[in-house]
Amino acid sequence: MIGSIPVLRGLAGFNKDWLRSDIPAGLSIAAVGLPSAIAYPAIAGLPPETGIYASIAAPIAYAIFGPSRLLIVGPDAATMTVLAAAMGAIIAADPAAANIDRVAIASALALGVGVFCILAKLLRLGVLASFLSRPILVGFFAGVSLSILVGQISRFTGVKIESDGLLAPVVEILRKAALIHWPSLLFGLSMFALLWIVKAFDLKIPGPVLVVVISVVLSALFDFRGYGMAVVGDIPSGFPSFSLPAVHRMALDQLVLGSAVIFLVSFGAGIVTARSFGSRTGEDVDANQELIGLGAANIAPGLFGSFPISMSDSRTAINLSTGGVSQLAGLVSAATLVAALVFLHSALRILPIPALAAILAAAAISLIDIQELKKIWRISRMEFVFSLIAMWGAISFGVLNGVVVAVAATFVYLLHKTMFPRDGLLGHIEGRHGFFDLARFPEARPVEGAAVFAIQGNILFYNADYVRTRLTTVARELAPRTKCFVLDASAITHVDSTGAVALDTVADTLAKRDIVFAIADLSQESRGILERAGVIKKIGTHNLFNGREEALRALIGKSAEQ
Questions:
Q1: Which distant-in-sequence residues (6+ apart) come within 8 Å of 537 by Cβ?
Q2: Where are the transmembrane segments (predicted)?
Q3: Which 3 state secondary structure label does DSSP give 456?
């Protein structure tokens, strides 16, 4: 460790016995990762080799700077979809950017994501991972998956699709049905069916690996390219050289916005993955430390002609299932992919595009977590609605704007949960200690001569009017012989200036009825706000108490426990 940077933590305590586990794990990760590394770049209109570069550079960088022993980073379908939208926004904002190599734009965005990660670490903003809640992410990814599926129409059929959106491409392909290259469509659907057969029968060999091997062999035997089927084409046999993308030639505002959105989705989804696997292995996940690993894992591809990445659930799952014990597995997978670039580039160049479409379509469908949606529906109807809002945002407004909709939906959900804090009058139950909500416990009785009222939430500008209305309504309905009104503030951690005005109004209402207004267990921060607002002066410091029992003893001369 150097300061708070987790240098080589994933390899700490290394011993040679780990080689027996990490080498097979690394080979398995590379085998599973190669098909997706070739396929995923197509989502953003990037050449296939960029996915291999990302799958090499990112794991090496994470092995050096990442805190986790077992997490594997790499290309991710959802991140690629957001990347495609961000690249489109940059090109649309500045026509001159259309002349810039798309790889350069993707590399610039990768560097931007890395910079956002480092800044977020310096500001200790690991909490940003929670900006997109699990229900919001599930809905958003379902919408993204539909976008990916529609994007494969051209690759399955060989027909150029010019329209955007969800339904327009479907209508366009129906209109251009006469142009469909049927051998491509049939082969792509066959490979898609093969993927599901492998999954259904739980075969040991990964479906994408089988599809790539079979597709390359058949393409070589029957010359698919000669029959008009599109193939991957030339793939460079070496690793790219170090280079900085021409950021000065791109629309800076769109570059920053695109990097921020990709960062939010990549980090938010990545931490969900990290915590999911961490709960299985007992490994602690520190979101702030993961920012360093993820930042380095994005900067490295950006410097070597590639694109932003995320924490990969499929690669991490393979690492765990094959017994990987350290980041050496990630390094082995990177070395294996370097060897694939050198020795297999001639075979990969004849890989049919419809096979990649099948892999992408299967990956997209895997993003639709039906079981999780059912679980959300069972647990909370409201959270399920927000999942659907996030899904609708990604489909209706495009992926980039869909992220904004998802974040907005998260904030709306949070506001809804806190705008109407739970509250109620408290009383005693004979023979039992403590205070009980009179509405929830019919056997509870109010304290004679007093009213004890609890609010379980903060009093802030967006709910202050609701709290004021509740308190003044209760105050007006108190029995004539009520001497005091005790506000239990034990669950109120913060009151802002608007909340102070609301409590000032409540104090006036109670004063008109000659009822003492007292506050119990007020936090120091909230007390400071109320003092500066003049509320404490109005009710008197002698009416501030450490607890409800103390307040009742002082105000009505009775024990709080009846």
A1: 531
A2: 25-46, 52-72, 79-97, 103-123, 135-153, 173-197, 209-230, 250-272, 325-344, 350-368, 389-415
A3: strand
- Which contiguous run of DSSP H or E holds residue 183? helix 182-200
229/264 Cα distance (integer angstroms): 38
Least Cα distance to 229 among 262, 261, 186 occurs for: 186
Identify the burial level of 496 via C-beta atoms within 10 angstroms of its C-beta, where 0-12 means exposed, 13-18 middle and 19 or more buried.
middle
H or E stretch at 402: helix 398-419
Distance of alpha carbon 117 from its chain centroid, rounded?
A: 14
Three-state SS sequence of 133-160: CHHHHHHHHHHHHHHHHHHCHHHHHCCC
Bridging pattern class, strands 445-446 and 422-428: antiparallel
Beta bridge partners of 446: 427
Tokens at residue 456, please?
């379980």
Structural domain 422-556, CATH architecture? 2-Layer Sandwich (3.30)
374: its two tokens: 């059912």
Alpha-carbon distance values, 127 to 113, 296, 461 (Å): 17, 19, 23
pLDDT, tens only, 149-188: 999 999 999 999 988 878 889 999 999 999 999 999 999 9
pLDDT tens for each residue of 78-94: 899 999 999 998 988 87
Q: What does the pLDDT read at residue 560?
A: 43
> Residue 484: which region, alpha, beta or left (left: phi > 0; alpha: psi -120 to 50)?
beta
Contact 341, 174 (CB under 8 A): no
Amino acid at 133: S
